[in-house]
Write a structure and sequence with these properties.
Elements lengths: L4 H9 L5 E5 L3 H8 L2 H8 L4 E4 L2 H10 L6 E3 L15 H10 L7 E7 L3 H12 L7 E6 L5 H10 L4 E3 L17 E3 L6 H5 L4 E4 L12 H5 L3 E4 L7 H9 L4 E2 L6 H10 L1 H18 L2 H12 L1
Parallel strand pairs: 1-2, 2-3, 4-5, 4-8, 5-7, 6-7, 8-9, 9-10
Helix pairs in contact: 2-4, 6-11, 11-12
């Protein structure tokens, strides 16, 4: 949520209605706005309609001055438009290029930041002793770190397969099962999540506030992430309420959790199925928002 008082006041003066779509207001931002309630309430009262992601967000906006009859709970549009068909062509292409057998369990760490790649790599190397077919895919959040992560893997003495060096027209030579796959391209993360049986969502052990865990959940992966997920607090709560994820508080908790999921595949599948069900049940925000705008404008 980003509100510009000058813009809202000028729109009001010119009788231009303003709607806030997919509104999210964190508890932290809400407390900041509260400090200026006397000045900001006239601004908030001029908002024509709010399509709120969640009930807590709707309640916070009402306390800040948006009339209750102008606030509509539509859900988050982030749940809509997730492509997760089992035969999704981009996903199948990545499986072929990465040479991952359909029955091989896949651990994937996506949207990672340092030192998350090292943590996951260490966990994977330890788990391989008991689960030698376990595959690992690393996907750094920023492209400028692709080479850095590649060097990290190679320094650990592990063979590396980089997506940027693979082409459907020129198949890569056969690789060993102990090879780490590095997705070092832009625009393929969503499709790659479809390969994951176990998904670690990065940016959650650092200062970035987490990344989107909806995509791996939609694919039915068993999802875990660290404690720092304030950018997706409402989404995390939805998954937690449905027992559809397993947050961890430190990197040390990753090894026993992932080992448990590998030892208990039915439990892992139950978590993944619950996560996919949450995504399906939350979809529809786009349609609800369009109907709201059509009705009132």
């Amino acid at each position: 949520l980003e509100l510009w008082p000058g813009l809202l006041l000028e729109c009001s003066r010119q009788q231009v209605p303003v709607a806030i779509v997919n509104a999210r207001l964190s508890e932290r931002s809400f407390r900041r706005y509260l400090r200026g309630t006397r000045l900001l309430q006239p601004v908030f009262s001029r908002i024509a309609h709010v399509a709120a992601q969640s009930q807590p967000c709707a309640e916070r906006l009402q306390r800040l001055g948006v009339p209750a009859d102008r606030i509509h709970l539509t859900g988050s549009v982030k749940f809509d438009g997730v492509a997760c068909s089992p035969q999704h062509p981009p996903t199948q292409l990545l499986r072929k290029l990465f040479q991952i057998a359909p029955d091989a369990p896949v651990l994937m760490a996506g949207s990672t930041q340092a030192p998350e790649e090292r943590c996951i790599l260490d966990v994977w190397q330890q788990l391989r002793r008991l689960h030698p077919t376990l595959q690992l895919i690393l996907v750094p959040r920023h492209r400028e770190r692709f080479d850095e992560v590649a060097e990290l893997v190679q320094a650990a003495g592990v063979p590396l397969l980089r997506r940027s060096q693979l082409s459907p027209d020129s198949p890569a030579p056969h690789v060993d099962s102990d090879c780490v796959r590095l997705l070092d391209t832009i625009g393929e993360l969503s499709a790659c999540w479809g390969l994951a049986d176990i998904a670690f969502v990065g940016g959650s052990f650092g200062s970035r506030g987490g990344q989107n865990m909806i995509e791996p959940a939609a694919w039915g992966a068993a999802v875990t992430f660290g404690p720092n997920t304030w950018n997706f607090r409402d989404v995390v709560q939805i998954f937690r309420d449905a027992d559809a994820c397993r947050p961890v508080q430190s990197p040390a908790e990753l090894l026993p959790l992932i080992q448990h999921w590998l030892d208990q595949p039915l439990e892992r599948q139950r978590i993944g199925t619950a996560a996919a069900s949450v995504v399906r049940n939350q979809q529809g925000a786009v349609v609800a928002t369009v109907r709201l705008l059509q009705t009132h404008f």
